[in-house]
């Protein structure tokens, strides 16, 4: 067996274990929606073998929360000598679950959504891996997503949908790591020729498990190396919507919420073409749409503060296929004067669209300034020790919320099978979700797409912070705004 290692997972581990211990933030998930022509028993055996290969490939998957706290109130993680199947794989047959809420989703999506809500509501137990793979099997005959199937050969009745949700403690991995996990499963699945030999559990960790790949070990926090004359943008504490009083739900009252919207490939294609013609990004375009929507839904809003994460892997020289936390975030404020100008325009008018594009261009310019000023260095360097971090987090309770929403774009995934006739594992859709933040943004819009397939917008929030109707209306507005680009409206 390997030597047992311990680690706090560094600065990012400190931030997220404190938030987790206080119940302020719980987990992230990247989910792949797949189809397969295999029988279920063969599919499960191959997935087990692929997961074991992924565990061997990625050291972060060998760590879990220790019952020993670090000296500064954060948690210590330890590596395992054995990985037990029941600790890392949860299998769900959707025919045994029911949907009770009235979101306009397919029955299969509703099962997935409800299971993700439960996962994001749960806290991570000590002594267990700080991640889990949830596999949802859908019966043969469930319709595969039409939007995802366009441009591909027509599906057959033998194909079944199954979902793989990689749910993880944010201390061990960032959003791109979730895509790396899905890629690892697909890669090892495609390397299996025929049925694998019997997969034995528990998996004995008989190899040397390296210590985690920490961002502060890849960036010199004492030497910002920012361009001459560049300073990090200053974000004053201007009031922002929703401005509610932050409070921790009593007892077990915390509940994570998830809403999904699927944007068809042709709508996504028209949106990307429009963004390219305007010199903006899809993320910036969605940010502009959200601002327009909220400015009308919340006419008294004093301003909106956006938070968006971005990857540091280009600076840490870390592969996009690694599982690690190498990310930072940017804040951007949209003042009341901009919102007032939006409200004076007619809905769906060219003037309104000009405001959307203007906000999107401001978003891109802010990101350029953020990176040029190496603001991520200050962000990481200024994280206090666990004791102070815990104190400052608790001090937010009872104060006004100053962050409106987060928007993140995971990027594009694709099936890794080289044979187009191989239908054993085909990626149809990709999505990212996370637990709602108690002290941070009111809701999060998470984007992910599949090459040649649809874009999935998942909106996540803590139950009670915003009304469900607002989320549903926002989802419809975003889809309809993008659809109007297809028709040229």
Automatic annotation (TrEMBL):
Region listing for Disordered, in residue ranges: 222-246
UniProt xrefs under InterPro entries: Alcohol_O-acetyltransferase, CAT-like_dom_sf
| Organism, scientific name | Bionectria ochroleuca (Gliocladium roseum)
Which superkingdom?
Eukaryota
The protein's name in its UniProt record? Condensation domain-containing protein
């Amino acid at each position: 067996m390997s030597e047992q290692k311990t680690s706090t997972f560094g600065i990012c581990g400190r931030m997220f274990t404190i938030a987790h211990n206080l119940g302020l933030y719980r987990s992230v998930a990247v989910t792949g929606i797949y189809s397969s022509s295999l029988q279920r028993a063969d599919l499960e055996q191959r997935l087990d073998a692929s997961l074991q290969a992924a565990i061997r490939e990625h050291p972060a998957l060998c760590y879990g929360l220790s019952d020993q706290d670090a000296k500064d109130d954060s948690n210590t993680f330890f590596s395992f000598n054995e990985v037990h199947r029941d600790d890392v794989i949860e299998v769900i047959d959707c025919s045994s679950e029911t949907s009770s809420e009235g979101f306009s989703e397919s029955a299969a999506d509703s099962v997935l959504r409800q299971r993700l809500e439960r996962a994001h509501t749960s806290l991570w137990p000590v002594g267990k891996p700080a991640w889990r793979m949830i596999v949802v099997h859908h019966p043969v005959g469930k319709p595969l997503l039409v939007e995802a199937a366009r441009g591909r050969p027509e599906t057959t009745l033998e194909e079944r949908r199954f979902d793989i949700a990689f749910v993880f403690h944010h201390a061990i991995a960032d959003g791109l790591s979730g895509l790396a996990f899905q890629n690892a499963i697909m890669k090892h699945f495609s390397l299996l020729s025929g049925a694998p030999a019997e997969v034995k559990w528990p998996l004995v960790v008989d190899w040397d498990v390296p210590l985690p790949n920490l961002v502060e070990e890849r960036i010199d926090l004492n030497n910002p190396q920012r361009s001459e004359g560049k300073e990090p943008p200053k974000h004053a504490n201007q009031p922002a919507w929703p401005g509610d009083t932050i409070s921790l739900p009593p007892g077990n009252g915390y509940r994570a919420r998830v809403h999904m919207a699927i944007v068809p490939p042709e709508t996504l294609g028209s949106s990307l073409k429009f963004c390219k013609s305007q010199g903006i990004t899809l993320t910036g375009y969605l940010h502009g749409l959200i601002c327009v929507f909220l400015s009308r839904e919340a006419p008294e809003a004093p301003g909106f503060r956006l938070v968006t994460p971005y990857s540091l892997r280009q600076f840490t020289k870390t592969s996009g296929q690694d599982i690690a936390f190498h990310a930072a975030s940017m804040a951007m404020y949209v003042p009341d004067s901009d919102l007032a100008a939006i409200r004076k325009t007619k809905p769906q008018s060219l003037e309104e669209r000009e405001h959307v594009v203007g906000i999107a261009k401001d978003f891109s310019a802010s990101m350029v300034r953020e990176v040029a000023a190496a603001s991520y260095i200050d962000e990481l360097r200024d994280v206090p020790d666990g004791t102070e971090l815990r104190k400052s987090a608790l001090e937010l309770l009872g104060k006004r919320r100053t962050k409106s929403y987060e928007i993140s774009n995971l990027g594009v995934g694709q099936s890794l099978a080289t044979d187009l006739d191989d239908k054993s594992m085909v990626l149809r859709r990709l999505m990212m979700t996370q637990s709602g933040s108690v002290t941070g943004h009111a809701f999060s819009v998470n984007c992910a797409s599949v090459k040649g397939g649809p874009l999935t917008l998942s909106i996540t929030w803590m139950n009670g912070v915003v009304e469900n109707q607002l989320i549903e209306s926002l989802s419809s507005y975003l889809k309809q705004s993008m659809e109007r680009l297809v028709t040229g409206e």
